Amino acid sequence: MNILSYGGGVNSTAMLIGLHQRNIPVDLILFADTGGEQPYTYDYLPIMDQWLETHGLPKIIIVQYTDQDGNRLTLEEECLRSASLPSIAYGHKTCSLKHKVAPQEKFCNNHPLCREVWDRGERIVKFIGYDAGEERRRNHAVVYDIQDRKYRNEYPLIDWGWFREDCLKAIEQEGLPQPGKSSCFFCPSMKKSEIRTLYHRHRDLYDRAIAIERKAKPNLITVRGLGRNWAWEDFVEGDKEQTAICGLFPETDLPCGCYDGG
């Protein structure tokens, strides 16, 4: 059984295209929704679903984190409740593990086909979207992959020698629009140019990000805000002239420190 974590970005989109071209089956495609994805990521999901249906592949299944009572809890809500920033601001990645990895694992743990594979003593193949320029990440994960009794991770883009440029080309040749990079709209890994873009193109989302920062501010000790050693709000308020030049900063260039399959 083969499953793929779809992040709505370039790598995972290209990986699906490459797998189809090579007639490699994909049984489950999971998208973990933190509740705070970039607008273009949500817009891309139906586009990709249409492509998947046209090519005889399963549609994307959206999974979400729920609390112990079964209630939906977004990463944004969690930050506001705890008066804290996303964990990556403090140098950790628990936000990605909790809101990206855990919901997918929970879904698989309760999926009949997955349970059948494990009952047979076999492992599920999980396709990971590291491209050929990220081989160090695969090397770092080797020890954990070997110890995993439930999943056997495979890295098709690395095996095919596909770098990011190759991924972009594959998407273009397939006639699909280019997706943006997967990122929450309040991700501490966003660059200043991206914050300026968010401020102008999605002011409502910028305001929600600032609400997280303001709520956490009284509790911050080692960091100053969403920029880690600087606050988003201070940057924007002190940089009014530059924020007016939003056309220079494409909203599709939004790298994130978290990885969920690209």
Structural class: alpha/beta
Rough shape?
globular
Q: CA-to-CA gap between the ends?
A: 21 Å
| DSSP strand tally | 5
N-to-C SSE string, H for helix and E for strand: EHEHEHHHEHEHHHHHH
Helix content range of the residues, please? 40-55%
Mean pLDDT, nearest integer? 91
The parts where pLDDT drops under 50 for at least 5 residues are: 246-261
Report the radius of gyration as a whole number of Å. 19 Å
Q: Main sheet?
A: 5 strands, parallel
Number of helices: 12
- Share of residues in strands: 5-15%
Give the spatial strand order of the biggest sheet: 3-2-1-4-5
Written account of the structure:
With about 260 residues, the protein is α/β, with parallel strands linked by helices. Helices cover about 45% and strands about 10% of the residues. It has 12 helices and 5 strands. The protein has a 5-stranded parallel β-sheet with strand order 3-2-1-4-5, with helices on both faces. β1, α1 and β2 form a beta-alpha-beta unit. The longest helix has 16 residues. It is globular, with a radius of gyration of 19 Å. The two termini are about 20 Å apart. The C terminus is likely disordered.
